[in-house]
Amino acid sequence: QVQLVESGGGLVQAGGSLRLSCAVSGSIFSIKAMGWYRQPPGKQREWVAGISSGGMTNYLESVRGRFTISRTSAKNMMYLQMNSLKPEDTAVYYCNAAVEPVGNSWGRGTQVTVSA
Questions:
Q1: What distance in Å separates the CA atoms of residue 94 and residue 22, rounded to the nearest whole number?
Q2: Helix/strand/coil for 114
Q3: Mean pLDDT for all residues in the chain
Q4: Could you tell me which residues come within 8 angstroms of residue 65 by beta carbon, excluding any fewer than 6 positions away?
Q5: Measuring CA to CA, how many Å separate 36 from each of 1, 95, 110, 116?
Q6: Burial zone of 54 (CB within 10 Å; 0-12 exposed, 13-18 middle, 19+ buried)
Q7: How far apart are CA 59 and CA 68, in angstroms?
Q8: Smallest Cα–Cα separation from 83: which of 96, 64, 55, 70?
Q9: % of the chain with per-residue pLDDT over 70
Q10: 54: DSSP letter
Q11: Residue 108's pLDDT is what?
């Protein structure tokens, strides 16, 4: 069994910053691709950013240049540094990871609220 736990969400004013963390624990052989998703109020969940096991990153166009995804393999941690936050970034943010041998795994989410 694998657990993914997000932390670091909260309420911030527009233009502010937050750093989300995702801790992966449990029966882990290896972690391949990881990513952050978000679900704004009343909308579908959407992919935000991804990072491969080799450190290659990719971003949703609307967050490119403002968000930075990173990971530390030794500690099974992933991060999302979010700068210049906008009200439209308000959402529940979810951690996702392809964990061997369990497979695709999700955290329970952390709320990010950006006030105008």
A1: 9
A2: strand
A3: 96
A4: none
A5: 20, 5, 11, 23
A6: exposed
A7: 8
A8: 64
A9: 100
A10: T
A11: 98
